[in-house]
Fold this sequence. Notes:
Strand content: 25-35%
Largest sheet: 9 strands, mixed
Shape: globular
Amino acid sequence: MTDAPHEGVEPAAAAALLERGLGRRAFVQAALATGAVMAAGVATASPAAATGGPRTRLPGQVLQPGTGPIDGDLYLPSRPDEVLWGYLPRTTDAPVARMRSGQTITIDTVSHEGLLEDQGRDPAGWFAGQGVPREQVLDDAVAIASGYSRHPRDFDADGPHVVTGPVHVEGARPGDVLKIEPLSAMPRVPYGVISSRHGKGALAVQFSPDNGISPAEAMPQTPDGRATGDPLQYGNVSVFTPVRRGRRGVPTAHLPVGTSGEVSWPLDPFAGLMAVATVGDATQVNDPLVNSIPPTLGGGNIDVKHLNVGSAFYVPVVAEGALFSTGDPHMSMGNGEVALTAMEGSLRITYRLTVCRPGAGDAPSVAFRYPFGETPDAWVPIGLSDPDGSRDGQGSDLDVASRRAVVNALDFLVNDRGMDRAVAYAYLSAAADFEVSQVVDRTVGVHGLIPKSHFC
Length: 456
């Protein structure tokens, strides 16, 4: 691990410094708005193929670009020329970083929440409205919102995600698998945002009245202003969610219940988007074929909550160098991601990227044709409703995703664990779980959990 020039301080000391700088009254107001802590970080260094127990680190500061703990061999910030806003890199795009297989890289991911056009494309201003002082707003978020120019932004057509990369991994070639291991994930700020937008989410208005809900049950329940063409008038809802320390110092998110109650839950940070480049025929960086919203065979916006620190995510390589990218940082997410977003919040994530060759036995056989996950405790087969994204139409049938997850689970158990297919099918029905990953990304997803403890 290396530290950038501005050393971290303990949270208590940071709070004292903030109080002296703001004055007691302003400090209390800021504490109520932001949870009275500087950025609380969670890092669990226990990748799926490694040993060692979990650890939690609280860096005690807002992780502005280049400051604070940097765990990786390499460091990649998210400056405007190192990101794509709403799109994935193509196989022909030039890398912004290069690394060897097996090296580690720390990437400052940037959440799109607070940057988007329906929030004014002014993160300093939008977060100020939530009580966040300017020094707790990330400089790279401000720079992207004001200075991004790789393509004109179209709020209605573009994906929302700030995607950092691509990273060229030496030796990766078509037919290989890239093993992606998140080794640490630290919240860069002490807050997140959960958003619900008109026409999107599990209860979008287009699902009524013939698809299971009434118009009165559609969400959000604010007036729908999309006809104005002005995103600021759309009536979308964004819920600011402060982070502070809960019991035993565990970083937790907090939301109000009624006038005096509260609901809280522990953070479990991960990147919703981890990808390799797969599209070579997109003529522009903002071609719909590389829109960042639908997950694909190259991973992308996969939104599987179990692919957190300590896991491994395997994706088939299509381009020389794999061309890895990441974004959509989540501080926590529930299966389904029903409102549209998780608890979105910028993370500093360290990855180990490793090239796996056919026949080497260091990647699940399914992963040479389809994304596959692994945690210390389970194998995670994945199914998508339409794994080529928007090409030739967009399919959003959850049944299709479920069937594919089951087939991929069967293929894994037969080819990698040596089970008879009929027996494996029976086992999955009796002992494995299949969960909805998300229902909001155009291409919807299902994943399975096959406990490793069941196997001798």
